[in-house]
Amino acid sequence: MLVLVVDSATPAVTAALAEVSDDAVVVRSQRRAVDARAHGELLAPAVEAVLAEAGARPRDLTAIVAGLGPGPFTGLRVGLVTAASIGQTLDVPTYGVCSLDALGLLDGKVLVATDARRREVYWAVYEDGTRLTEPAVDLPATVAGRAAELGVAVAIGEGAHKYAEVLGVAARDEPLYPPAAALAALAADRVRAKAPGERLTPLYLRRPDAVAQSVRKPVLP
Amino acid sequence: MTEPLVLGIETSCDETGVGVVRGHTLLADALASSVDEHARFGGVVPEVASRAHLEAIVPTMQRALDDAGVTLADIDAIAVTAGPGLAGALLVGVAAAKGYALAAEKPIYGVNHLAAHVAVDTLEHGPLPEPAIALLVSGGHSSLLLVDDLAAGVTPLGATIDDAAGEAFDKVARLLGLPFPGGPPIDRAAREGDGESIVFPRGLTAPKDLARHRFDFSFSGLKTAVARWVEARERAGEPVPVAHVAASFQEAVCDVLTNKAIDACRERGVETLVIGGGVAANSRLRALAEERCAKYGITVRVPRPKLCTDNGAMVAALGSHLVAAGVAPSRLNLPADSAMPLTVVSV
């Protein structure tokens, strides 16, 4: 079963085609560009490129897998609306996976941290690939405390590097961004079971910045 | 080719619109609005609008296709507003359009929102005689344009130098305790009032201003003048005659808009004026434009109110015009451009 994988929850824009069989997930083609400001320009051509490279047409797809974030809102929405519109056109199911989960598929206790801007990180802690904490957004100093309590030994992700000193956990070099193979693997059981698709709802974790209107200022002195 | 079947997607502000047209015939115009979510903020909050677009796009698309009785496979091209507008909001529509276009293997056209406001009139009144003068007035824009060739580009003649006309409606409505958005409640309140009861200033109409700003608008001073007038009554403990203030404010806006639009028609020797944008739904603007244009032998074309405000049909209408004119489609890496210039009709 040929599956399109997209993720735009980090500065990396990822598109890939994965073949999901009964006992394996094999990535057949993938494109990744790192540019936090150009998700909207980069993703659709990347999808076209992975299809061309695999010699596939859109109608060959049987499902779409998308990283739900958490991630910076504007870029994140590009991936989700792209996945949703392709799924709707082809009438195939869309499956969402937490983008942090794709970085947490490691042995032992791992802190996954991605850059949330505003001097914060999106994070969660995993043990042997199982998530122990809900995805959250916090200051690195707060995360450092929680990671210490949970006995985390290693950290991963771009945020883990950027704030390595504050977090106080050694950061692994790779991967920096959610790998396509891991995203596909996280949805593989649903793909195999032909599970009903889900509406792709982003993990925003922050409310919109908006202030309810205050009392109007007078114009007369 | 028979008349092109074109789908249009609009997400530049707070309306998620998907329209379907064949040639100049409107087949579907599905709309979802987040306006109620913005009301308590007194204006459109970009992030709130962007979130709403993401939720609304798939169901709105489905509704448009169902209403038109077509599938994406039947469509000849997909048009989408590429700008101008709110960056994050535009991006949802542009990314969606790319997904639809690449999955259905159809060409995509990234188009100018303001040119679409002009093109929508063709759905109601047929092909637009060229050249025409277009007056586009909404919450985000107030512009006068010369439309020589809608497929190739339009020539900006003037624009607001401060607030958009619709923005002035919103601010005056708030001052008068009327709800957001301010256009419809001011229009309603004004029907009970006398538009000549209070003389509010007409921005950029004095001879010294006309020399430099003949076709430009200014509504910031008008808004402040209304605020001063209302506050003076309040401080004196007198009741504020809401209907008279609304009518007089509306008269000042419509007076300037129609006079400058007619001046542009006469200066350029143009016999057709098309009015678009949300403020074109205002009943006084429509009536005054008809009345004044008739005097000068100018034909006014104003689409029905639902087509004046933002919608997907207008984007589809422009897309259909571009396809029929043989304009090349956009590339799949087309950007959303929040400041897209008026001289660019499609990217």
UniProtKB/TrEMBL annotation, chain A:
<dbReference type="InterPro" id="IPR043129">
    <property type="entry name" value="ATPase_NBD"/>
</dbReference>
<feature type="domain" description="Gcp-like">
    <location>
        <begin position="36"/>
        <end position="152"/>
    </location>
</feature>
<dbReference type="InterPro" id="IPR022496">
    <property type="entry name" value="T6A_TsaB"/>
</dbReference>
<dbReference type="InterPro" id="IPR000905">
    <property type="entry name" value="Gcp-like_dom"/>
</dbReference>
<protein>
    <submittedName>
        <fullName>tRNA (Adenosine(37)-N6)-threonylcarbamoyltransferase complex dimerization subunit type 1 TsaB</fullName>
    </submittedName>
</protein>
<dbReference type="Pfam" id="PF00814">
    <property type="entry name" value="TsaD"/>
</dbReference>
TrEMBL record, chain B:
<dbReference type="InterPro" id="IPR022450">
    <property type="entry name" value="TsaD"/>
</dbReference>
<keyword id="KW-0963">Cytoplasm</keyword>
<dbReference type="InterPro" id="IPR043129">
    <property type="entry name" value="ATPase_NBD"/>
</dbReference>
<feature type="binding site">
    <location>
        <begin position="136"/>
        <end position="140"/>
    </location>
    <ligand>
        <name>substrate</name>
    </ligand>
</feature>
<comment type="function">
    <text>Required for the formation of a threonylcarbamoyl group on adenosine at position 37 (t(6)A37) in tRNAs that read codons beginning with adenine. Is involved in the transfer of the threonylcarbamoyl moiety of threonylcarbamoyl-AMP (TC-AMP) to the N6 group of A37, together with TsaE and TsaB. TsaD likely plays a direct catalytic role in this reaction.</text>
</comment>
<comment type="similarity">
    <text>Belongs to the KAE1 / TsaD family.</text>
</comment>
<feature type="binding site">
    <location>
        <position position="113"/>
    </location>
    <ligand>
        <name>Fe cation</name>
    </ligand>
</feature>
<keyword id="KW-0479">Metal-binding</keyword>
<feature type="binding site">
    <location>
        <position position="117"/>
    </location>
    <ligand>
        <name>Fe cation</name>
    </ligand>
</feature>
<feature type="binding site">
    <location>
        <position position="170"/>
    </location>
    <ligand>
        <name>substrate</name>
    </ligand>
</feature>
<dbReference type="InterPro" id="IPR017861">
    <property type="entry name" value="KAE1/TsaD"/>
</dbReference>
<feature type="binding site">
    <location>
        <position position="310"/>
    </location>
    <ligand>
        <name>Fe cation</name>
    </ligand>
</feature>
<dbReference type="InterPro" id="IPR000905">
    <property type="entry name" value="Gcp-like_dom"/>
</dbReference>
<feature type="domain" description="Gcp-like">
    <location>
        <begin position="26"/>
        <end position="316"/>
    </location>
</feature>
<feature type="binding site">
    <location>
        <position position="282"/>
    </location>
    <ligand>
        <name>substrate</name>
    </ligand>
</feature>
<keyword id="KW-0819">tRNA processing</keyword>
<feature type="binding site">
    <location>
        <position position="183"/>
    </location>
    <ligand>
        <name>substrate</name>
    </ligand>
</feature>
<protein>
    <recommendedName>
        <fullName>tRNA N6-adenosine threonylcarbamoyltransferase</fullName>
        <ecNumber>2.3.1.234</ecNumber>
    </recommendedName>
</protein>
<dbReference type="Pfam" id="PF00814">
    <property type="entry name" value="TsaD"/>
</dbReference>
<feature type="binding site">
    <location>
        <position position="187"/>
    </location>
    <ligand>
        <name>substrate</name>
    </ligand>
</feature>
<keyword id="KW-0408">Iron</keyword>
<keyword id="KW-0808">Transferase</keyword>
